[in-house]
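Might I ask for a little of your time on a matter of protein folding? What I wish to show you is a protein chain and, alongside it, a tokenised description of its three-dimensional fold. I should value your view on which stretches of the chain appear to form regular backbone elements. You will find the record immediately after this paragraph:
***
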Amino acid sequence: MAERKFIHVSTYGDDRWTGRYESPNIGRTDGPLATLAAARDMIRKLRTAGELPAGGAVVRVQGGSYELRESLRFEAQDSGTSD
């Protein structure tokens, strides 16, 4: 199975963080993202930089209420590949 990038989103996250971790670290300097839009943008950034693994990305959204201030839009660039 191809390697995948996991991105975590949580109601106690922060969009300035990397999304690499399920919960904030002890110093609260990194942890999950706070919004679905930030996860989408992170994947876009990884793809543009050539850093998205062959297996793509998996966004893990923890339970909670996520209020959207604007519509969450996905475009063709957000689509997967035939692989």
